[in-house]
Amino acid sequence: MAVFTNVSEADLTAWLADYSLGELLELQGIASGIENTNYFVTTSNGRFVLTLFEILGADELPFYLNLMAHLARHGIPCPNPVANRSNQFLGTLKGKPACIVSRLNGKSVTDPSNAQCAAIGAMLGQMHIAGQSFLQNMPNPRGAAWRAATAPSVRAFLDANQAELLDSEVALQAQQDWTTLPQGVIHADLFRDNVLLEDDRIGGLIDFYFACSDALLYDVAITVNDWCTNADGMINPAKAQSLLRAYHAVRPLLDIELGAWPLLLRAAALRFWLSRLFDIHLPRDGELINAHDPRRFERILKFHIDSSQPIWL
What we know:
alpha+beta, Phosphorylase Kinase, domain 1, Aminoglycoside 3'-phosphotransferase, Chain: A, domain 2, 2 domains, five-stranded antiparallel sheet
């Protein structure tokens, strides 16, 4: 586990006394994640996931919890926060902000099929439409200002060619104005490991703690860069086309979005190249981080820069 706060059965039993979830039957740590500590919790009333927030503060969390509750009410299969007896989604456990949410069915896949790419494309379109009626706003914390601040801190760890690539791409993206594109709430981290599948059906979208308000198409670009990319950083055209066509069938893309698509693919690749460089070279104190290889998104970025056919609709 990336950041771990130990919770005993006695700790959780005392905490659950403020909820109407029945008797604790099982508590099991989840050995994954980068930002939070997570446990599977089984009670006499059902199966849940407990999250202790290691980075985010209590003042930041209502946006994410309210968003998940909103989407769940609109039929999107995402974790539904459980309120305590004070009608609050957020509590405190072991000195950390904590919540408990419904546990969803399915499992993540490492090599999605064309049909599974289509399924996530359609679900992403449904999520974007459902999010239009969510009234809270969260500016993207990994936007232009973050890129400008983060790039100099990781530049020293790059060779000359990588540094030139980073500088030029950050400068190019700083010139773009994505506010002219359709806006709304986005997941912003809809990688394969944040989607639970049951065969070709989406069982759940999880880990909404990077969600924010931004261009909807940016969310599509983030998703395509992970779901439709081969290990060598090359986009798989058939998978990308399946995802994009399914999304377009639910929320038709505008001409202005199609024009922005090539640079948004690059922006999405740059965002994760930067964050992975930071995580691997400048980890936070006391954090046992599951750092991902940043070179994957460097390759994806280079692919998009060199690509002459960025549209697969």
